[in-house]
Here is the input.
Amino acid sequence: MGASVTLKVMRSSKAAGVLFLFTLMPPAQAATQWICLRSPNFELYTSAGEKTGRQALQVFEEVRSAFKDILGIKIPNQQPTTIVIFRDTEEFAPYRPQGNIIAYYMSLSRRDFIILQDLLPEHYPMALHEYTHLVIHQAGMKLPLWLNEGFAEFYSTMKPMGNKILVGRVIPGRLEVAEQGLMDLREILKADKSSKAYNEADRMGIFYAESWALVHMLKFSKPYATRFETLLDAIGRGEPSDKALERVYGKPIEAIQADLQTYVRGSHFFEGVIHAKMERLDIQPEVEARDPVDIAVLLAGIEARGPQHDDAVATLEKLAKDNPGKTSPLEALAWIYLTGPHPQFAIAPFQQAVAAGTRDAVLCFSYAVKLRASIPDYDYVAALRRVAEIDPQMSEAQELLADHAFDNHDYAETVRRLHLVKKLERSQAFNYYRMLAHAAFETGDTVEAKSAAERAQQYAATAEERRMAEELVNSVAGGKSSPPSKAPEFPQGP
Here is the structure.
C-alpha cells in the first residue's frame, strides 16, 4: 500500500514513549474569539488563536501531501475538509461524543470534519489517527473496521526524517493492552461499528490494540510483510478478511493469532522508514471573515451529533428565531433531522430555508429523496427543480425530474431533462437511452428515438435487457413504440 519501506529494529520499551510528529505549543494566553483560516485544502475554525491555527494548517497540508506518497492514493481536491480546534478541555466538553475522546472524525453530506479538543503536542497523534480515517474515506477506500482502525493507529506515530518518514513506532498503551491478552481474532476481523467489541468499554481498548498490532505484524514482520500488499488487494476486492488471511498466508486464523500473540510479547518491534518525504510547503493561510451566527451554527451542528443533541437543536431554533431570513440555522436543523431517526421533522425548517433563499443543492436533493413518501408530489418536484436551478450540473436531480415527467406522460419535459444530464454511469446507460427513445418517439422525433434505441441496444448487459432493446429498436423502426407505464429507475443519491 504505497511507497517502499526500509525496516529497522526497535526495542519495545514502556519507558521509550512515543516520538511525536507535531511540536506545536498552545498560546500563552488562550484566545476567546473564534476565527476562520483557509489554506488550499483545509478550512480551520479555532478559538486557540491565529498563530497556532496557522501552524496547524501548515502541518495538516504537509501531512496531506505526505499521505499521497505513503498510501499511493489520490485525494480529491474538491472534497472540503473542515478542522475545528477548541481552546481547552472545558470548552470542548459539550462537543465530546463520549468517554475520554479528545479528537474525532465526522463525515457529513457536505463536508468532512476533524474535531480536536486542543493543540497540545501530546494530542497530535490522535489528530493524525483521525486524519488517516478522513484520507481513507476521501480516497474511496472501503476497508473493514479492523484495518481502518489499525492503519489509523499505525500512522498516528508518523515522524519526518529528512527525505524519509518514520512509521510504526510503538504505542506503549496499545502494546501493554495487547500483551495482557488478545480477543478471538475472528471476532476482531468480523467486527463492524455496531459490534460489542467496538462499543463496550471493557473491550474497545482490546479491539484497538489488537487491530493496531495485527496491522503492525502484517506490515513489518518478515513472515508476513512480503504478502501484505496481496492481502490488501484481496480485501479491496471484497474478500472477507478471515478468508483472505488464510488464503494469502496459507495458515488458519488460529495460527495467525498465535503468531500475533508471540509478536506482541516478543523482545522487539520493527519500525519502517518510508522512502517518501514530508515536503516543507510554502502556504500562507488566509484569515476569512465569518458571520458569528454562522460559526454558532457550525458549532451547534457538531454538538447535535453528540449527547447534547437537544441543547444543540434548541440553540439552532433560537438562532433561527433571532435571525429571520438567515438560512444557515434552518439548513442545519433540516440536516440534523434528515440524518436522524425522525426525518419528517425536517419539513418545517426546510420549507423555511427555501423561503429564505437557501442555496444548498445537496440539502434540497436529500430532502426530496429522503422524504419522497412523506411529502406532496408538488413539494418533491419543487425541491428537485430548486436543485437544478442552484446546480444544473447535478445530474441526479435531472434524472429524477425526467423520471417524474415520464411517469406523468410529459414526454417533452422528459427529453429536456435527459438532455441536461451531464454525467452518466455505464450502469445507468441502458435505462437512460431506453427512456429517451420512448420519450423522443412520443414527441414525434423519430430520428432521436431511433438513435437512442440503438444506443440502448449497445448498453444492454443482460439477456432481458437485450430482449427489451431489440423490441424497442424494432418498434421504433415500425412506427409503433409503446412507452412503459413507469420510467426506468435511476440510482438515487448525489
